[in-house]
Structure formats: C-alpha cells, structure tokens
Amino acid sequence: MDLQSLMSGISSSYTSTANTMTGIMIWTIIAAILAITGAILVYFLFVKSKADFKGFAKNLRDYLSFKTMHVEALIKMFYYAFVIYYVLTSINNLITYCSVGMVAQGLISFFEQLLLYPLVLRLIFELLMVLCRIWRNTDKLAEKK
C-alpha cells in the first residue's frame, strides 16, 4: 500500500466522521427545539387546560401535572431490592470464605451483611418515607384550605 492511498483513506474517513458529527449536532438542535415546543404545547393545551377530562385522559393529566406521585412506591421497591441483594451476597460471602478455610471471617461478613446492612438501610429508607409522608400530609392540609 502506498502513501497516497493511505492518505486518501484517512481523508475519506475524516470527512465521513465530520459529516456524521455535523449530522448529530444538527439533529441535537432539532430535537431540542421539538422537545421545547412539545413541552410548551402539552403544558398549555393539556395540563393547564380547563377542559374536564375523563378516564385515561384524566389519569394522564394527573400524571403529567404531578398530582399522582410514585416516589413512595419506588422507595419501597429500592429498599426491597437492596435487602434481597444483601441477603444473597451475605450467603455468597459465607460460602466463599468457608470454602477457602476462613470460617471466622465468613461468619463475620455473613452476619454483618445479613443484619447490619439491612438495619442501616431501613433507617435511611424510613427517613425518606417520613419526608414523603410529610409532603403528602402538607399537600392534604393545603387542599383543605
């Protein structure tokens, strides 16, 4: 392969990459403009609309206007996932340490992950739930007035 063909290959590759990058930048600008326009239209024509929606449209409107909150359910699911993870890894640590003859280290690691980690997680997630419930109760009080 001579130098001329190598240079033309590099130049062709650079031109192709430059065209691709230009296309990506143009599409990013178009997508941003469409997203902003769509958000404005959804907000003013659907969320802030005085129309009385029923069924799916009402549920969608409540979802888009943040009247229904899903944070509590997500917090609970994350808590369950973390606890199950720590229980399973504690069993794995016990088996791993015992298989290499480090029984004492395995038992310490097992009980640490089985008891201590879920307890600390429970305290953290309870604090998060308290914040959610304070928000919910404050919102209910504001609705009564």
Question: What descriptive keywords fit this protein?
Answer:
145 residues, mainly alpha, 4 helices
Give the overall shape.
flat
Helical coverage, percent range: over 70%
The H/E string reads: HHHH
As a whole number of angstroms, the C-alpha radius of gyration is 28 Å
User: What is the percentage of strand-forming residues?
Assistant: under 5%
Report the span from N to C terminus.
82 Å
Low-pLDDT runs:
none
The total domain count is: 2
Number of strands: 0
Tally the helices.
4
Mean pLDDT: 86
Query: Main sheet?
Result: none
Structural class: mainly alpha
Plain-language structure description:
This protein has 145 residues and is mainly α. It folds into two domains: 1-68, no CATH class; 69-145. It is 86% helix and 0% strand. The longest helix has 45 residues, at 3-47. The radius of gyration is 28 Å and the shape is flat. The model has no long low-confidence stretch (mean pLDDT 86).
In short:
The protein is mainly α.
Architecture blueprint of SSEs:
Elements: H1 3-47, H2 56-64, H3 71-99, H4 103-144
